[in-house]
Design a protein that fits this description.
Radius of gyration: 27 Å
Helix content: 25-40%
CATH superfamily of the largest domain: D-tyrosyl-tRNA(Tyr) deacylase
Order of helices and strands: EEEHHEEEHEEHHHH
Number of strands: 8
Number of domains: 2
CATH architecture of the largest domain: 3-Layer(bba) Sandwich
Distance between the termini: 43 Å
Length: 208
Amino acid sequence: MKAIIQRVTTASVSVGELPISSIGRGLCVLLGISMEDTQKDVDYMVRKILNLRLFDDENGRAWSKSVMDKEYEVLCVSQFTLQCILKGNKPDFHAAMPAELSQPFYNNILEHLRSTYKPEMIKDGQFGAYMQVHIQNDGPVTIELVSPSAPMDPKQLAKQEKQQQRKEKPRSKGPLESGRERAAPRPRAQDPNASSGADGDVSSERET
């Protein structure tokens, strides 16, 4: 799951000319749900959204208070486009959870936020609608969150796989390694005064 969290002085959502919801000072949260998200991702996101210290304390010290500490509001907006993967210049959204599955999943997030905080402090847009989101960013302060179990970008995953293959290649060259070991001098193995511990070390090297 991905989230864009913005500290705001005001934020509102409308569909066409119809106002849906609005908040004063607090957080506007854009949520992108992926195909692989589970309750674990929900728990992580809810905990982070409500506990991120993005506000000043009563003495003006920055980054000291959370939205719950300040008793501010949270406006959530479902945004599947956060799960975009670019194919050239064209966005692809196959990583996003389909609407028939993501709507109850999104509602579960809202309920979790409301039960953890205060129901009246959690607002949301209109799921699946073409919305206009009006945000007055305070700072500006914008935080990107990705839940730990979110799927990795295919390009990043392929890069990691190649790096892992490079690391594993020397291990697969058994004959070459054995040849290098045979060519290497072994004074400790031939030393009659060598301790049993040293002999053990050399023996271990031969076996690897």
